[in-house]
Amino acid sequence: MDIDAWVWWLIVAAGLGIPLVLTAMPELGMFAVGAVAAAVVAALGGGIVAQVLVFVGVSVALLVVVRPIAARHRAGQTGHASGIDALKGRQAVVLERVSAAGGRIKLAGEVWSARSLDEGQIFEPGRKVDVVDIDGATAVVM
């Protein structure tokens, strides 16, 4: 039983696609696309030299063009702050007088214990303050 060249290229593409899914290495996907392009050339009657050149050309072109775009996209994502990191920098309203000794604020719909960043600062009820840090269960405000 003689298998056509385009079938071999599809087997190579599948062989590269399986580790792509398992390892999440996008480079393997680019090689798999190159193998599919070579399968198309083989199905159209291109010789082995043309098939290999198309495989290499498409794979390298994808590596050169797509990889830097993906890297820039990945680097541009800063992620979303969650937990206490999401509270830093937000505004809160003073519920009970806040000093270096303590007090209460309303932050993100919840009542928090708070203390002022500066020892001499005192914030009266109703005033808006900025949360600069979270120290345990206490918001540090200014």
Main features:
single chain; 142 residues; alpha+beta; 5-stranded mixed barrel; 4 helices; 5 strands; 49% helix; 24% strand; rod-shaped
Strand-helix topology:
Blueprint: H1 5-23, H2 26-43, H3 48-76, H4 84-87, E1 91-99, E2 102-107, E3 110-116, E4 128-135, E5 138-141
Parallel strand pairs: 3-5
Antiparallel strand pairs: 1-2, 1-4, 2-3, 4-5
Helix pairs in contact: 1-2, 2-3
Write up this protein:
- The protein is α+β, with helices and mostly antiparallel strands.
- The protein is built from 4 helices and 5 strands, in the order ααααβββββ.
- Strands 1-2-3-5-4 form a 5-stranded mixed β-barrel.
- α1 packs antiparallel against α2.
Cα-based radius of gyration, to the nearest Å = 30 Å
The rounded distance between the terminal residues' Cα atoms is: 80 Å
Report the sheet-strand fraction.
15-25%
How many H/I helices? 4
The count of DSSP E runs of length 2 or more, i.e. the number of strands, is 5
Categorize the overall geometry. Answer: rod-shaped
| Average pLDDT metric | 90
Low-confidence stretches: none
Name the strands of the widest sheet in spatial order.
1-2-3-5-4
Structural class: alpha+beta
Helix content: 40-55%
SSE order: HHHHEEEEE
Major sheet description: 5 strands, mixed, barrel
